[in-house]
């Protein structure tokens, strides 16, 4: 690791001290090749010479392309999905579509797994790897990262996002954006705003108050924008009664004014309906083709659409592409080499750091490598790879299934039986059972596993007390029926092409687990505030065609109390709390110090403490700092995450950790002043290993 990379992350070691700046984790936001003003001048030169026909055609895409302008030597620009790798599509002849030149791309662990690493530098490298594959494949816009906050565990696209906490999501997003765009690939922040369900997603209306928008659902987008993101995609749903892509409130007020975004805004595919509303609302580009914007020229003649709005749209598209140097790169046919071996290593490291050990009774893990030990493996994802579907699907290469990974790690100890009987189960020294879900966009899935799956896991844990459950899912699942009987539980998310190697390494002890949950996993779905989101009488398997379903309201009545914030406000115990994850090491916390003890609103506060590895193996602990405001004038959560750091320690080693807090660490969104407000009074600083594992606390006072 060189000093430049260390400085970029503001995360470094000095004389045994780990230092982390709570906000602004990216030292220098991404800067495009041309400034806004320079790119605007070039865009204006083209715009002045364009005919109305050229302009009206340019503001709608062509499948996965931004259209070109042959008369001006402006080439088409290729886009590709998604956050966890480059999704490739092929024609009937086996050739890549849309002018993409890549024949393969790396399948990384899903983004929620990346969030479970709590690793800023890894987020940068993960995204940079994807950007390198984009550029080598002639792709200049990635339709990611996705960052919709995890509100309900049933959402089919949770696996594409970054969890329930806006602070954690923001820190991952800002490093993702800088990593991706460092390769010249545009990052597209999606889906703006409040797209928390896939159930008839184009027919849902999220009803959310202003404070909740700013405190929970916008900060991850804010972090991406502050890091220099060059594109934003609007969501399918309505927000407070207006389709997001047609809403001046969403685009002009929240995105442009409050968050200061000034580059390209596109809609999600077939996500707008009214051309006049769209053009006046501030959207720049309709994808994938002209539908709402099909007869713009005629509507201009009728006075329903202003040509000045079309000019604004054209200019924004051109300005963004000019600023990034995309047209020059395409025309110069710049070739980029890809180090796929390095990308596989990044994918493997993501899985190693993202797998979460949820339970380890009697230290059954790691498994000893005794040749006489009999390991029986069974379950859903033993011979096939667990992965999410839809636009986030990435095929990968060199895919390694769980069975091959286990046999490579444990050899002949491993015996795969598809449907083991009672005698086979009892004779095994250890039973590994693979379970999970297939999540995909366009549909939600039940929090519970199928009745047959639940029954089978219960049978296994009852017949062999040394049963380890391996979960591959895109979000939380119901484990209440069997978690207490399982000897151990490992949460592996969707592992990507090499993630099963990491799972085998953790089972053997070659890798010490360090992942922490970026979500809360409830005991029952009814324990969450969003459990009534489905229309009355409907379930996630409803077959009504989306376009025939009436618009339905989803009331975010919980306000800012999402995830662990809700659980603590309701005194509800989750099955596994946010920030939770076990290690084969043990860590102790001590010597908390907060300076200054009394401070003014604009001052920074340094939180420092000591952490020691009291175990017998080296390991990484993710330390977490929460802030509590017990004297607030508005309802506030019991605590909120405001800082974290990954700390590697050898057995017996100690390090002092310093985390810097600033005004935003103490503030809430004031709807009266339309700004962030930190009130004078007492705040509590809470330090621990999870949201429910607080080890140290102190009080400080804001003057």
From TrEMBL:
SUPFAM superfamilies: (Trans)glycosidases (SSF51445), Beta-D-glucan exohydrolase, C-terminal domain (SSF52279). InterPro entries: Cellulose_deg_GH3, Fn3-like, GH, Glyco_hydro_3_C, Glyco_hydro_3_C_sf, Glyco_hydro_3_N, Glyco_hydro_3_N_sf, Ig-like_fold. Keywords: Hydrolase. One of its GO terms (molecular function) is beta-glucosidase activity. Pfam families: Fn3-like, Glyco_hydro_3, Glyco_hydro_3_C. Residues 621-691 form the Fibronectin type III-like domain. GO terms for biological process: carbohydrate metabolic process. Belongs to the glycosyl hydrolase 3 family. PANTHER family: BETA-GLUCOSIDASE. This is Glycosyl hydrolase. It comes from Pararcticibacter amylolyticus.
């Amino acid at each position: 690791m060189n000093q430049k990379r260390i400085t970029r992350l503001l995360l470094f070691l000095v004389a045994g001290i780990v230092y982390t700046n709570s906000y602004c984790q990216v030292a220098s936001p991404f800067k495009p090749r041309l400034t806004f003003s320079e790119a605007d001048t070039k865009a204006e030169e083209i715009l002045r010479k364009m005919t109305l026909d050229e302009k009206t055609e340019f503001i709608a895409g062509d499948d996965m392309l931004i259209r070109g302008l042959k008369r001006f030597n402006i080439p088409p620009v290729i886009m590709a999905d998604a956050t966890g790798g480059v999704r490739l599509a092929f024609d009937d002849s086996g050739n890549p579509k849309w002018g993409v030149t890549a024949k393969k791309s790396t399948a990384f662990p899903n983004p929620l797994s990346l969030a479970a690493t709590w690793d800023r530098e890894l987020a940068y490298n993960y995204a940079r790897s994807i950007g390198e594959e984009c550029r080598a494949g002639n792709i200049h816009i990635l339709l990611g990262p996705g960052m919709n906050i995890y509100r309900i565990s049933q959402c089919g696209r949770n696996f594409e996002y970054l969890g329930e906490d806006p602070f954690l999501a923001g820190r991952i997003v800002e490093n993702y954006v800088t990593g991706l765009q460092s390769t010249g690939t545009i990052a597209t922040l999606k889906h703006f705003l409040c797209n928390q369900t896939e159930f008839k997603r184009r027919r849902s209306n999220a009803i959310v108050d202003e404070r909740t928008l700013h405190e929970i659902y916008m900060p991850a987008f804010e972090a991406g924008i502050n890091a220099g993101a060059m594109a934003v995609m609007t969501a399918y749903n309505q927000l407070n009664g207006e389709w997001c892509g047609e809403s001046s409130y969403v685009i002009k007020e929240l995105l442009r004014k409050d968050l200061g975004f000034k580059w390209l805004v596109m809609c999600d595919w077939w996500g707008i309906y009214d051309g006049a509303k769209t053009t006046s609302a501030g959207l720049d580009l309709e994808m994938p083709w002209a539908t709402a914007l099909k007869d713009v020229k005629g509507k201009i003649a009728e006075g329903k659409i202003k040509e000045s709005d079309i000019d604004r749209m054209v200019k924004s598209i051109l300005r963004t592409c000019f600023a990034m140097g995309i047209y020059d790169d395409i025309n110069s046919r710049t070739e980029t080499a890809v180090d796929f071996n390095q990308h596989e290593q990044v994918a493997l490291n993501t899985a190693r750091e993202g797998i979460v050990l949820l339970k380890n009774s009697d230290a059954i893990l790691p498994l000893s490598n005794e040749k006489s030990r009999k390991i029986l493996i069974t379950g859903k994802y033993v011979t096939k790879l667990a992965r999410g579907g839809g636009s986030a699907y990435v095929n990968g290469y060199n895919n390694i299934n769980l069975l091959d990974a286990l046999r490579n790690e444990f050899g002949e100890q491993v015996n795969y039986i598809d449907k083991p009987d009672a005698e086979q189960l009892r004779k095994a020294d250890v039973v590994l059972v693979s379970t999970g879900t297939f999540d995909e966009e366009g549909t939600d899935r039940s929090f519970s596993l199928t009745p047959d799956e639940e029954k089978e896991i219960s049978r296994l844990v009852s017949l062999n007390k040394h049963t380890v459950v391996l979960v591959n899912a895109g979000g939380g699942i119901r484990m209440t029926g069997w978690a207490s009987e399982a000897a151990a539980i490992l949460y592996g998310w969707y592992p990507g092409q090499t993630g099963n190697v990491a799972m085998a390494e953790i089972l053997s002890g070659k890798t010490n687990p360090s992942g922490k949950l970026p979500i809360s996993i409830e005991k029952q779905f009814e324990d969450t505030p969003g459990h009534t989101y489905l229309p009355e009488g409907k379930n996630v398997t409803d077959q009504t065609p989306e376009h025939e379903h009436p618009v339905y309201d989803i009331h975010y009545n919980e306000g800012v109390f999402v995830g662990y914030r809700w659980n603590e406000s309701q005194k509800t115990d989750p099955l596994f709390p946010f920030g939770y994850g076990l290690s084969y090491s043990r860590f102790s916390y001590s010597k908390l110090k907060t300076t200054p003890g009394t401070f003014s609103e604009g001052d920074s506060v340094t939180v420092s403490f000591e952490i020691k590895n009291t175990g017998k193996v080296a390991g990484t602990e993710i330390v977490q700092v929460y802030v509590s405001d017990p004297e607030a004038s508005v309802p506030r959560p019991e605590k909120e995450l405001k800082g974290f750091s990954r700390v590697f320690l050898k057995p017996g080693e100690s390090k002092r950790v310093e985390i810097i807090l600033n005004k935003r660490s103490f503030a809430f969104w004031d709807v009266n002043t339309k700004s962030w407000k930190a009130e004078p009074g007492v705040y509590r600083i809470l330090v621990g290993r999870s949201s429910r594992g607080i080890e140290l606390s102190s009080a400080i006072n804001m003057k």
